[in-house]
Structure formats: structure tokens, C-alpha cells
Specification:
Layout (H helix, E strand, L loop, with lengths): L1 H28 L3 H9 L4 H8 L1 H11 L3 E5 L2 E11 L3 E10 L28 E4 L4 E4 L22 E9 L7 E5 L6 E4 L1 E2 L2
Parallel strand pairs: 2-9
Antiparallel strand pairs: 1-2, 2-3, 3-6, 4-5, 4-7, 7-8
Helix pairs in contact: 3-4
């Protein structure tokens, strides 16, 4: 009896330790949120700093805003501004979604159909990268609780508003430079992968 309680306690501690580690990893890797919005608001002063610090930082800023691909369906427009390989063996795809309609957009079909993803409502959890040359499909990374390493549109995207988003995927082989991004019923968008920092 005592051995049984000890094992339950160890399992609980192990689960807590793993979950804590994953949450910290997601917090460290994740972008989005209010930090990005405050950076966007200060973007007019950023180029002036870049000129003083050197040309490298200035050349990177415009690339972040460069449209790599765009997918439209009805009043919803999804723009991809970055698709970069990271040293950790994953790819981070990011951009914006714009609601040009008159109703709230909740991204209901973007979360995916898998039972494990049901807790990721109003997110890009169902997104995928397709390597057509290698004939492989890469799904959004997720933690042991089924939470995606992606943006959740808490409260949806209101009419006329634009929201930032990101999603992280396992990296395709090094030779793969072009993939197709797909989410929900949006048309696929072809994207060139770049090397991260």
C-alpha cells in the first residue's frame, strides 16, 4: 500500500516537472502577445536606432514585414511574413490575419479535427506544412497536454482588425527550401524557407 502511494506521488511529480518544463519552453519560444504590439508601435523609432548601430539590423527589419505569401477566403486574409528554420530543429512560420468582414472571426476550422486539438479553440493548431518534393506533411508542434506551439486568437479577430500569429513545426530536411502552408479551408500558400538566426 505504501509503495503504491509512493509511485503515485512520483508519477505526479514527474508529470508536474514535465509540464512545467514544456510551459517554460513554450513561453521562451513563443512570440506574439503584447510585446509584439508594443514593438510595432515603436517601429518608427527603430530605423533611426538601426542607422546608428549599423546596417545589418536595418536590413533585417524590412524583411520581417515582407509578404512571402498570402491566402484569402471570403473576408479573411492570411499573410505569411516569415518562415524561418531555427537551430532547435524546427520551423517558425508567422504573419498576420485580417478580418475584412462584418462579423467576428473565431478561426473555428483552423484548430484541426484531431480530438487532441479540441482544447485549442480559435487558434492555428490545425495548420500544416507540406513538403511536396519529399512527400511529407508536418503538423504544428504541441506539448503533452495537446496545446499547440502556436497563436490562440483569444476572443477572436474583430471586424476590420488584424492580428499577429505564429506556428512552429518540425523542420523538413535541409535540402527542402519550399513548402506549402495550409490551415483550415484556406487555399494553400507556397512559402520559401529561410535560415534563422
Amino acid at each position: 500500500m505504501n509503495f503504491r502511494h509512493t509511485m503515485k506521488g512520483r508519477r505526479a511529480l514527474t508529470a508536474v516537472a514535465i509540464t512545467t518544463g514544456l510551459v517554460l519552453t513554450v513561453a521562451g519560444c513563443g512570440g506574439g502577445g503584447d510585446d509584439d504590439k508594443s514593438d510595432t508601435g515603436a517601429s518608427s523609432s527603430a530605423p533611426a536606432k538601426s542607422n546608428d548601430d549599423g546596417g545589418d539590423k536595418e536590413s533585417q527589419a524590412p524583411e520581417e514585414n515582407k509578404v512571402l505569401a498570402e491566402s484569402k477566403q471570403g473576408d479573411i486574409s492570411l499573410v505569411i511574413t516569415s518562415a524561418a528554420r531555427d537551430t532547435g530543429g524546427y520551423v517558425t512560420v508567422s504573419g498576420t490575419v485580417n478580418n475584412g468582414g462584418s462579423k467576428l472571426f473565431v478561426a473555428a476550422d483552423w484548430r484541426g479535427d484531431e480530438k487532441e486539438l479540441q482544447g485549442n479553440a480559435s487558434s492555428v493548431a490545425g495548420a500544416s506544412l507540406v513538403d511536396q518534393a519529399g512527400k511529407k506533411k508536418y503538423l504544428v508542434l504541441r506539448d503533452t497536454e495537446g496545446r499547440c506551439l502556436c497563436t490562440r486568437f483569444v476572443g477572436g479577430v474583430k471586424s476590420g482588425e488584424t492580428a499577429d500569429w505564429y506556428a512552429q513545426f518540425p523542420a523538413p530536411p535541409e535540402g527542402t527550401t519550399k513548402v506549402s502552408f495550409q490551415v483550415g479551408s484556406m487555399p494553400p500558400a507556397s512559402v520559401e524557407l529561410s535560415e534563422g538566426e
